[in-house]
User: Fold ABC transporter permease from Gemmiger gallinarum.
Amino acid sequence: MGFFENISLALASLRGNKMRSLLTMLGIIIGIAAVIAIETIGGSMTGAVTDSMSGMGVNNITVSLTQKSSDDEMGTTAMDVTLRWFMDSTPSDEDLMTDEMIEEYQAAFPDKVSAIQKTVSVGQATLQKYGDADTTITASVSGANRAVLDGIADDTPLLTGRWLNDGDGDRRICNVSSKFVEQTMGCSDAEAVGRSVTLTINGMPYTFYVAGVYEYDDSSSYMFGSIDDDSIQTTVYIPMDTARAITSSSDGYQSFTVVVADGVDMTEFVSTTGSFFASYYTRNDTWTVEATSLSSLIEEMTSILDTLSLGISAIAAISLLVGGIGVMNIMTVSVTERTREIGTRKALGAPSSAIRLQFITESMVLCLIGGIIGVSLGISLGAAMASAVGFAARPSVSAILIAVGFSMAIGLFFGYYPASKAAKMDPIEALRYE
Assistant:
């Protein structure tokens, strides 16, 4: 008997016992649907987290000052150990990283460093909301070099005016968002360019002129808020020298960001960067430099989410074993019901291998149909649940293929015993069966 004939017989047998076949497939359907739904939700969550964090700069390295631990110090005796409790938590001007260090770093790795992003945090500024003198708007103010603004421009276009340049020195100009213009100036973006805006920073008023307006992005990580219920996030960018003048800060940096060129091995270069800057602090008893990358954090989070999804899927897959036992049970009943048919075929010369293959094929077809239904149901459930929590549905193709293959493997494994039982029947005894 050919392959297609076995499939035809299997389908005919399933059609002849529709309700029994459906009930038998339920275990397979539920198990496969649960696995696919969980994998879909897990993939959606992983994708959402990865996309969100990727927008924060996967190819960036954060270089920052950090206090040395007691293990980093030269001495090991009680007299040599400096008590960390009494150390300054704020580095002095002599401890800060300098422009000279950064220039030497760029010269050492010209092909690996795309840009250096430097910022000076000025703090929070307050001003009145346009048309509502009783409402106070609070915005973050930050000094930024052109590399920072170029990075922002990749995702947030400039609507009108120009970005600040490194050559702006200590000019009182700024870049603001379109939402800032709407909330505080009450005019169009084009009309805002060249206008003055007075920000109160640490109790002192400072007047700036708008050089450019960038598109407001509500997913921005910069804080901007009002007493309204709707939270608003934005930053006012000013030249670096202006920020230093307002904060009376030195020319050094507690931290900055390295934009790494495409194609660079991030894991290796993070370590190299950290070692390069730490070499300047070998004689510093209190401070050293660490380099970190968001890409390693993303990989770790992705691995955790994947492991979690796999563990939950493994638990859900237990129902497949229950479904497999149900398949074996129903196939055993089917063999018993068709004893005379088996005896007739064997009496007409059908070999045991043909009988075995017929029932194994029927078992695999039963599980395959259940697997296909389960995949369809699982994708639908996964997409619905992912949508309910605000994630884009991302069904796993590999999980679908594995699930279908596993369902057929269950049919083969749990269908083999009933098929072997049918193949071993004595034709004379089978024909006598009532």
Summary: The first strand starts at residue 60 and ends at 67. Residues 18-54 form the longest helix (37 residues).
